Amino acid sequence: xxxxxxxxxxxxxxxxxxxxxxxxxxxxxxxxxxxxxxxxxxxxxxxxxxxxxxxxxxxxxxxxxxxxxxxxxxxxxxxxxxxxxxxxxxxxxxxxxxxxxxxxxxxxxxxxxxxxxxxxxxxxxxxxxxxxxxxxxxxxxxxxxxxxxxxxxxxxxxxxxxxxxxxxxxxxxxxxxxxxxxxxxxxxxxxxxxxxxxxxxxxxxxxxxxxxxxxxxxxxxxxxxxxxxxxxxxxxxxxxxxxxxxxxxxxxxxxxxxxxxxxxxxxxxxxxxxxxxxxxxxxxxxxxxxxxxxxxx
Length: 297
Known about the structure:
mainly alpha, Farnesyl Diphosphate Synthase, transmembrane helix, MenA, globular, 12 helices, transferase, UBIAD1, 1,4-dihydroxy-2-naphthoate octaprenyltransferase
């Protein structure tokens, strides 16, 4: 039983789940300065977001396998299919079950907290399903990066905020930008690494469309703008001065940028860049959350 759980956990790609945990938490914490923090509803909204992302990860693995985008050599999936830990059918059924669980939870939250949650949930669920699912297969058409920014930036941050306070805020929308950019950088790092294999599979990502050199520039831009946006929000009073602590993650960011800068066409040098970027996003987001909590004490 324990071994099976660990296999399914691996399929969910736990290293990436900060992509949903951080924005929902930021939105909820920001609402805390305007109303009483509703911890139970925070947990429910967090669980719904994590289930959505986990299901997308599983279904993406299945779709990439069936469409021959991922191979044993590419090393870009969780590996549970290629290592015969789960069959493709098991992974597909599991992904759909997790997605359905997240949708049910989203429906409950929308019933409790308002129609806006239903809209956000529906956009998130449909975008997640059609990320690589037929007939839209949005990632394969070069729409993966903007979709990830929208879902794991504004959508989840506003969702976490709205569940707490039942209104929307321009400040929360701005607050979603740095974390959304870093989350997009996770996917973009993955796409840069996989340019060769994705070309062989006949799909299009932004990295394939604009080329490797320009893709590297976009990665640098996503990382840099994350820090610039936080500094701007501190200046305009949207985030507290404590948020300057996010700068302690800058050496990690520069290390990732330099790794990409000195890499060649071989994807082996960038095998872990997506995971390293996920760590950066997690550390950055946690510090941003802590800085906000400090300002309310």
